[in-house]
Design brief:
By secondary structure, this protein is mainly β. About 0% of the residues lie in helices and about 55% in strands.
């Protein structure tokens, strides 16, 4: 398990995000959690300010406004997208969950949408214009296991575990348009 200042951050299935004076971690340790750390830049320390045991393993995390978004797998075969209200840095509140058809390796936030790389399913887009009521608006199968995602300039780039890279035009989130693929071996993370 990774540790910071002697505080366990969980297993390899964790995701972290810096935002302002806070550091957020979603993942699993002895129990699933979202942890909030306050960063004291003067003293160069991290202070655990809040923790909630609800999410499961996670490899992606994003934030917008007072909301934090993560994907989780509390037990084998169960996969979820979670929305947390972060108004209280001491007690993150799980406000919504959406069941997913496959494990989400990663997620990216773009405007009012979250884009997920789903293992055996492909690309999934959720509308989060109302963060407490996220809605699946599209799923696009790529015929290969998807292991990573990044967004740039109106395009989604999906890492294909066995086939390289797939590129989608996401200018209309409800209808992602496949543009091209590049083969070249396994692609696990895209940054």
């Amino acid at each position: 398990a990774d540790t910071v200042d002697g505080i366990s951050l969980g297993s390899e299935d964790t995701a972290a995000l810096f935002r302002g004076d806070y550091f957020y971690v979603a993942g699993t340790g002895s129990a699933p959690y979202v942890s909030v750390f306050r960063i004291d830049k003067t003293a160069k320390t991290l202070e655990l300010t809040g923790q909630s045991a609800e999410t499961g393993s996670s490899k992606g995390i994003a934030a917008a406004g007072n909301y934090l978004f993560s994907q989780g797998s509390p037990t084998a075969g169960e996969y979820y997208f979670h929305v947390w209200n972060m108004d209280s840095k001491k007690q993150p509140e799980l406000v919504s969950s959406v069941e997913l058809p496959a494990y989400a390796h990663d997620l990216r936030l773009y405007g009012d949408h979250v884009y997920l790389s789903l293992d055996a399913e492909g690309l999934m887009v959720l509308d989060i214009s109302n963060p407490e009521d996220p809605r699946i608006i599209s799923v696009y199968s790529v015929g290969s296991s998807v292991s990573g995602i990044d967004l740039q300039g109106g395009y989604a780039y999906l890492g294909l575990r066995d086939n390289g890279l797939a590129v989608f035009d996401i200018s209309v989130p409800e209808v992602p348009v496949f543009k091209t693929s590049l083969s070249g071996g396994s692609t696990y993370r895209i940054k």
